């Protein structure tokens, strides 16, 4: 295995009280794609900043290969002092870096470069920051929540770009699908310490559950052993004093281990407050239109949402999701057409605009609306501190100002307020932002099992697939179509075309699935492979074998511990050659697999 470009070992850091990092480790070799996962507040961002050299640990070793370049994507990029996005992006380039790479990235991220930083939305600022850190093609790329505020088309493009890059990538993200497709190793930061799984995030949750179960068994065994030793000391046959003192010392050590064990962090308890049942018809829209000047946002859209439906709205930023959502819930009147709301509706809305919360307000005051120490949840009086514990807040945080919360804590606070209110229609705008995996799982269960109706806006494909019964997506020119099923089902019905392809598609009638003729697949498969395809299918295995042998030789050369010390220049060239060969191998294998599947389809 190649020597690491980055290696953190025994990292310790404490901000008063319980250590945030207590012997954490993190390493990355050339080309590795690593997911850094853990609960909100576990120290993931702090560990990434230590890797970037922005924070010094109190103890532990930090090694970065001297010649390696490192770029770090913060959650909140700082663009002060830059006149334009282009100036900000190009400031991240080194002397030998290609400025055309910066232009390429800005174009694919939907930026011209002429935008002024002060005028950018959250999503545009995130795209500019991504272009800045990716443009130099660094040896090590550290990404903290890269998909936040990005629309689906950009997330899918970013996935492909990160899979192709030769940079070592360490990333933090709440987007499961993104992590599953990009990563090949997982580092779990839990209670200040790290564990590594040399498999991608798709295998993480099963492994995590096994680790926690084994830890619980070991703790139980330790408890039973303490009980046996205490019984021996009290009632056992008296042995030599030296032996008694030794066993007493061992018992004290075991007691200390048992008491100091930090159990797995608790999980949030999410229960929506039930309102009286709504009518069977919740929302009916007929041929609604909405325009702003010359821009048509919604045109001729119709839908019927019934009690128990869970509807997802998807689309690029600026497509009009929020406008359509406001019209469906009666907050905004359409220019034409009608919207009818059902009877007995109680609507609870999750406002994802963090600035809508007064940063000076305390958590208890925010949850109770300043009405004392109690709030009504599901018809029962609950003390605000008790209710806060359901969402993993500590009692002492009741008087904490909102400004001191992390992004994940703010997300949980907003959910706590929304779910306390009686509702039979939940309207959730980007509910998954900043939530850790465990809380996200509970939110999925809540949405999937909610007795009322749910309308949600989300860019999280996995969340949509697990929760919604239908998806409303834009088709361009103000046209919106509703598809049965989740996000993956929508793609299948569209013939595999993604959301960014919508402008190239012919117009479709509102509320009808695209006709088969519109789909990108050919009308019918050829009866047999072409000569070129057959030749490629026959010759590709030999090419794959040759490249595999080349990779093996290069890996053996790199494995020589004296190689780097003997000839650093040749070592770096060998690393680059290895990355190139691995990329070639992946392309050859993918080409062969596509041809083999095509052959099997024709023969079948």
From TrEMBL:
Region (Disordered) residue spans: 495-526
Residues given in the record as ATP 2 binding sites: 315-322
Residue spans of biased composition, Basic and acidic residues class: 497-510
Subcellular location: Cytoplasm
SUPFAM superfamilies according to UniProt: P-loop containing nucleoside triphosphate hydrolases
Catalysed conversion reaction: ATP + H2O = ADP + phosphate + H(+)
Cellular compartments per GO CC: cytoplasm
One MF term in the entry's GO annotations: ribosome binding
Listed InterPro entries: AAA+_ATPase, ABC_tran_C, ABC_transporter-like_ATP-bd, ABC_transporter-like_CS, ABCF_ATPase, P-loop_NTPase, Uup, Val-tRNA_synth_C_sf
Domain ABC transporter, chain residue ranges per copy: 6-216, 283-520
Keyword Manganese among UniProt keywords: no
Listed EC numbers: 3.6.1.-
Protein's job: Probably plays a role in ribosome assembly or function. May be involved in resolution of branched DNA intermediates that result from template switching in postreplication gaps. Binds DNA and has ATPase activity.
Protein name: ATP-binding protein Uup
Organism expressing this protein natively: Mesorhizobium plurifarium
